[in-house]
Amino acid sequence: MKVALVVHTAYPDFIGGREHHVHYLASRLSQTDEVVVIAGGKTGKIQERKISGYRLITLPMISIKVSRNPLQIYRIIWKLFPILKIEKPDLIHAFEYGSYSTDVTYLYSKKYNIPFMITVYGYQFKNPILKFLKIVYNYFIGRKLYEEASGVFYSSEAQYREILGVIRKDIRSKIVFQENCIPVNNFKYAVPKQDLLKSYNLHDNEIKLLTVLRILPRKGLRYLVLALEKIIKENHLGKIKLLIVGPDCGELKNIKTMVKKAKLKNNIIIVGPVAPHRIKDFLGIADIFVLPSLYEALPLALLEAMAAGKAVIFTSLPCAKKVIIDEKDGLLVKPADVDSLKRAIYRLCCDKELRQRLGYNARKKAINFDYQIEATKLRQVYTKILLDKVEE
């Protein structure tokens, strides 16, 4: 079986949850099948690389900025259709709804009558023009794309409801829940690296908070900055540092302004984007992992922190109940609630035993989200779809 996974950007050229997810799946699936990942690249030429057992083909891409904050980009990937013709996959799995790469993949599958699947990730539009364009897209393209796909994968109830709101036919039998997963054991032994501590001027007697996210409004980073400001001013806890790891998606300028205004330059370190294999190093030096998101499907960064045995603080979003029982596997706080976030952070800062207990339980829970489990289930779906196709 030859599988093509198509996504508009891919690891290692681009850093993010979607890119990591596709990489993890491709790595595992390639152990039993031929897998090629096709994506837009950063250069003006076609590149092919072998990564973790699968082939990655990156193509020339034009990026059009459609929104500044949050940063939203529409990516046009030239030569995608011809590459699919050359590769001749047995089935195609596209990752993301509403992207150029998914639409072209769908058209290719229609023309050559091969199975097409799609994984839906969550995103939100604030711009009224973009909201209107999405409605138009849903009506003219998205509906047919969903209804004619061999499989539609989602990872949150919000995504499921959105899919049902677009379709007009009853296709619920082929809408499949797909858990976001990680290579759990890659994060098991996250130990402090002295050179990393030294490079960021961190000390053993400090409490080190870590957050890993795309720096955009829906990640709720501003509330974490405000909570840290309160902890330092009201609880007089000065020996605390926050490391922010992740790429800017339009919100970094606002965060830097907040940090300066709150006089937290000595307490907040903006690291920027790092390669996936380095996340483990930052988890190794962290005492507490915090993700104050306002909207999520199921964040890989949270699962990675739990797999590393870290005490985690997350917002009480619908997806949270899948991974965290409050007070057992981590602490849950209200979204956009500075005081709730402040209390949870301060509590963990002062209670090492609680941090250890939560971290231990988090590690046990994370084992249920290993990428081998997800990839095995996905391969079973692929096999069934191909068998059904032969019997037609």
- Helix/sheet category: alpha/beta
Give the integer mean of the pLDDT values. 93
Largest sheet: 8 strands, mixed
Q: What's the total count of β strands?
A: 16
Rg computed from alpha carbons, rounded to a whole number of angstroms = 21 Å
CATH H-level homologous superfamily name of the largest domain:
Glycogen Phosphorylase B
Number of domains: 2
Low-confidence stretches: none
Strand share of the residues?
Answer: 15-25%
The end-to-end distance, rounded to whole angstroms, is 18 Å
User: What is the strand arrangement across the widest sheet?
Assistant: 3-4-2-1-7-8-9-10
**Total number of helical segments?**
14
Tertiary shape: globular
CATH architecture of the largest domain: 3-Layer(aba) Sandwich
Order of helices and strands: EHEEEEEHEHEHEHEHEHEHEHEHEHEHHH
Fill in the CATH topology of the largest domain: Rossmann fold
Reading off the top of the CATH hierarchy, the class of the largest domain is best stated as: Alpha Beta
Helical content (DSSP H or I, runs of 4+):
40-55%
What report would you give on this structure?
- This protein is an alpha/beta fold and 392 residues long.
- It has 2 domains: 2-181 and 370-391, Rossmann fold (3-Layer(aba) Sandwich), CATH 3.40.50.2000; 184-369, Glycogen Phosphorylase B (Rossmann fold).
- It is built from 14 helices and 16 strands.
- It has helices at residues 17-29, 80-87, 100-112, 128-148, 157-166, 194-199, 221-234, 252-261, 276-285, 300-307, 320-323, 338-350, 352-366, 371-391; strands at residues 2-9, 34-40, 47-51, 54-59, 61-67, 72-77, 91-95, 116-119, 151-154, 175-177, 207-212, 240-245, 268-272, 288-291, 311-315, 331-333.
